[in-house]
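User: I'm putting together notes for a lab meeting next week and I want to include a structural view of one of the chains we've been expressing. I don't have a solved structure, so I'd like a prediction I can at least talk through. The sequence is below, exactly as it appears in our construct file.
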Amino acid sequence: MNGWSYGYWDRSLDVDGSYDQSTDFRHLRHFGSDPVNRLSGHTEFTTGKLWYLEDGRYYTSIWAEGGHPHGNMDLGSYVKSEQWAVRRWVSSVNGHIAISGHAGKAMPWGENWSGTVKFLIVAGGKRIYETEVGDGGKQYTVGATVQAGTPVDFLIGPGTAIGVAKFTATLTASSEHKE
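Assistant: Thanks for the context. Below is the predicted structure for the 179-residue chain, given as C-alpha cells.
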C-alpha cells in the first residue's frame, strides 16, 4: 500500500525498553471494524476501518491519520500491557526528505484519557522526533536522510494516559538537510 504498513511495539515485553526498528515492529493482524472497542465507528477521529491487535482485549489500533496505544493502567477486563501503535513507511527514494504533520490527542475526554500521549518518529534507526502532548497538539517538521528500503516509523504511545491520537505525516523530497 504505497510503502505503508501498520503494526505495534509491545514495550512491556521489550527487555531494554528502547524501540529497535529491526526487531520490535510487529504487524497488526486484523483490519476492518472493531465491534467491541468501536473506534472505527467514530468518524470524528478515525477514518473508518482500521488495523487492530485484538478487539476487546487491547485498544492497540492504527489508521491513516492516527491511532490508539494501549497502557498498563487498569482498564477493566483489558490486559495491562504497554503497546505503541506504529505506522511504517518504507522509502522508495534516496536522499533528504522533509516530514511534517500534526501530533496530538483527538479524544480529550474520559477519566482514563485525560493526560498525555507520546509521539516518536524513527528513521533508519535514528530518533528524529519525540514529543509528549495532551489535549490539542502541535504541528511539527523534521528532516531525514533515507535510502530506498529505509523504514520510517511513526509511533503513538501511552504517556500519563492513553486515548485516540492524531499523528499525520506528509513526506516530501527535500534539498535541505534538516537532521
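A couple of points you could mention at the meeting. The radius of gyration is 15 Å. The chain has one domain: 4-173.

User: Perfect, that's what I needed.
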